[in-house]
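Narrative of activities, Objective 1.

The group set out to show that a structural description can be obtained from nothing but a protein's sequence at a throughput compatible with the screening campaign. Below is one input-output pair from the validation batch, recorded exactly as produced.
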Amino acid sequence: MMQRLLVVGLGLMLAGAGAAQARQVTARVSADSVTVGERFRLTLLVDYPPTREPVFPDEAPAVVDSVSGKPRLGDLELLARLARGRRDLGDGLLRDSVVYEVTTFALDTAYVPPIPVGLATETDTLTVRSAPLEVYVASLVPPDAADVRDLAPIVDFPRPVWPWYLLGSVLLALLALFVYVRRRPHEVPPVVPARPEPVRSPYEEAQRRLRRLEALWPVVGEDGKAFYVELADVLRTYLERRLGVRALEETTRELVEELREAVVRGPLAPEVPDAVAAVLTLADLVKFADARPPAEQGRDALERVRVTLRVVEACVAVPADEPEGTEAVASAPAGPEPGKAGRLAGAAALLVGVGGGLLAWRAGGVWTALPFGLALACFVPMRRTMPLERRPLAGVLAVQVGLYAWLLAAYVRAPELVSAPWLVSADVLLALGGTAWLAFRPGPLPAYLLGLLHAGMLVWAFASGAGLLATPEGVVEVGLRLLAVLALVLGMRSLRPTSEAESIRPTPSRG
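Output recorded for this entry:
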């Protein structure tokens, strides 16, 4: 009996040893020593019976890194599974192998506790573990290195020198401009005769053109559009010269409304606005709606224009103290600068000087607002010394000076924020030349070039993703450039030659 119990116990011990052997887990690393952050390999081998399925640590992680979200095995962090294989060992055993890429940030030694591997069936899971591991972590600091040093001081990068070259170029250009102004010969103003040569009165000129139009009727009548264009121009030119209205610029409706206001003020006859409306409406239909009225209607329109001219001449009386047959002497206007556009150009200059200065002062301090003070300093004396009809030009120039003085100061103060130094330098130098051109030779061409320069820089800034509207300085620049374009438009419009009706007094009728 005792021998039988001994045999049974020995059998159980051998079966337990076989089961333990079947559940053996082996862990190996590819290097005995590593450095901090170095990647190396961890291999797990597990032997198990076919009735179970192994569950490795990355499939059911027990510990996960809170920063990277990767599974952790002690001091090791699993980065990726590189390979997995299976082999039949015979005797009812299988072997699975898994290779991981791991790393560690431990100091001196990375400790790996027993690694658990689950052996699962449909009803339960048995966990087996490997033996613990230790991996030596070599230091990256040389043995003879001193203690950890403090942070090194911030190194100053050399500031770009291109803004100073640009500033020097601008100063040299201004010096050359000053020398040119001082040395150029002063133009002697022409001697204005006491009485200008007699000119043809508005009525005589209109009658002459009507006679010519009637004489060319056999030719012009074939092309109705040319006839009505000339007829409408004769009537509009006469009304502008005789009554001082802007007939050549206004639409038919605006002109008729202005004539009706003249009827209320007197002494224009009430039938004049309706007659003018009838002729110009017919001409507009021919010009824009491609109407084809009969030839007799064209002759009636020409005759109606003649009658309208005679009625207007009869309404406009000759002053009693002015001899008949004389013309008025052209005189310069006395009073405010001509036109609403000129006043708006001056307002734009004041807005740039005061409003832009306040915005710049709030964004960058007193020194940032100094260029706007320069703009006002240029605007006030220039406005007083210029002829009255050119005073709007002072506002235009002040806006340009304020804008580019502010931009130049910004480039010198913070050149590292400029992404295209060559482009902004060309912008400043071209604007300097255009402003000087506009100051000495006022005309549409330099104004157009300056406007295109502003528009091009705005398009480039928005297209390149410079984020102008994201900073106060960018908002100021966008606003200044838009005001500069507006001032150019208003200034050039106010410098347009005035109509003859504003510079001559009515002349008596001669027909």
